Known about the structure:
The structure is a homodimer.
Chain A (H helix, E strand, L loop, with lengths): L1 H10 L3 E2 H11 L6 H13 L3 E6 L4 E5 L1 H12 L7 H9 L6 H32 L6 H32 L9
Antiparallel strand pairs in A: 1-3, 2-3
The first copy, chain A, binds a DNA duplex through helix 2 and helix 3.
Amino acid sequence: xxxxxxxxxxxxxxxxxxxxxxxxxxxxxxxxxxxxxxxxxxxxxxxxxxxxxxxxxxxxxxxxxxxxxxxxxxxxxxxxxxxxxxxxxxxxxxxxxxxxxxxxxxxxxxxxxxxxxxxxxxxxxxxxxxxxxxxxxxxxxxxxxxxxxxxxxxxxxxxxxxxxxxxxxxxxxxxxxx
Amino acid sequence: xxxxxxxxxxxxxxxxxxxxxxxxxxxxxxxxxxxxxxxxxxxxxxxxxxxxxxxxxxxxxxxxxxxxxxxxxxxxxxxxxxxxxxxxxxxxxxxxxxxxxxxxxxxxxxxxxxxxxxxxxxxxxxxxxxxxxxxxxxxxxxxxxxxxxxxxxxxxxxxxxxxxxxxxxxxxxxxxxx
DNA sequence: TAAAGCATGTAAGAGGTTACATGATTGG
DNA sequence: CCAATCATGTAACCTCTTACATGCTTTA
Lengths: 178, 178
């Protein structure tokens, strides 16, 4: 998570650690702790994915290297199924760096995961109701309903992205728009 | 997370580890790994929060102890601000075990966190637009909009729960319902 | 000149994961 | 009887957190 977010932000320009953290939390990703940020930067540096382009003693400004670009492409394209929302958000935020086919693959993979989750959620509701003999408590019920609505909204959102991705990809479909 | 989920499920009746895991994933919380489940059970046992009520060599059936009940009450009532969705879900699933005042406190605390997040999200959108001079890319924009809608939906959901909690709590307001 | 904020870092530990090992029980 | 699945467990590791330590720079 930190690795992909760091590389993604550094693709937009060199930054030092403190500023990187500000961007991360400002964007609404999460407020990463320094205790995790600095060791991560050192690790990325040691791996050759980023380099120090200005160490004036005070600030250490990092820039992404070609090796880091490769690593970033690898990370952004490889979806893990039923990925955490936080990680997927970071992926979407940098989705513009992926080629159109890769984007479509990521979005469709996410869609499948969401549909599977919705199915599991509905199944869970049924089993829960059967187990408790329809005495499902108010809060659990409210939670399950909320989750169902949230997943449905997300699927609709993804569908919108997929649709506009498809029209951007296959221009041949745009026959007689009027 | 595992601690509160385990204690909460054991409040409904004794279970062995394997079955506990089934319930956890069946409910849609998450598929906890055995490598985390069994050490956690041993830790809870050592702390005296749960006890083995049937170790027939094969299955080890655990039950919650009075100490575990205390621990559970402590965990369910103590909200951490801007809590992860997963943890809050577990909290809601067991909210019925909290007294009405505690429930209201938890819900209102969550509401505040969501409102704060929405404000941060809007601020982030403005700074991001200012920084990139209105050339915010499609995906980032879609993501920010999606997040805003999701948080708003969650606030509305919480408001519903708070409202019904309030009417259940203060019966004096129910003057002339017809 | 003192406080607030900028900036980097280390150590310990929380809370999970994957991979591996082992054995009992049940169903075809 | 063999495979699947039930059932428990350990070891190594990953990612991130909190708490602490340090020193510089800006501003009131």
